[in-house]
Amino acid sequence: MGNEDLSASFSKRAFLQGLGTAGLIALSGSDYGFAAPNPGDTYDVIVIGAGTAGMPLAIFAAARGAKVLVIEKASQIGGTLYFSGGMMSAAGTRLQARKGIVDNPDLFFEDILRLSHGKCNREVTRVYVDHAAATLDWLEDIGLKFRPEQPVTGTAHADFLTPRYQSGMEGGRSLLKVMLPPFLAAEAAGNLRVLIRTGATELVQRGRQGAVTGVVAEDESGQRTVYHARNVVLTSGGCLFNPVVFQRYHHQPLYGRRVYPFSMGHGLDLGVAAGGIVRGGELYIAHRGVVFTDRAWPAPVFTTLAVDPRHRLPWEIEVNQHGLRYVREDSDVDQLERAQTAQPGMAAWTIFDQEILDKAPSIMPAKSRDEQNSAFELHPLMARANTLEELAARMGLPPAALRRTVDNYNASVARGNDPEFGREHLPLPIAKPPFYAIECRGSSVFGHAGLAVDAQMRVVRPDGTPVKNLYAAGEVTGGWTTAGDVVVNGCMVTPALTFGRMLGQSILKFDA
Question: Is the pLDDT score of 30 beyond 90?
Answer without folding.
Answer: no
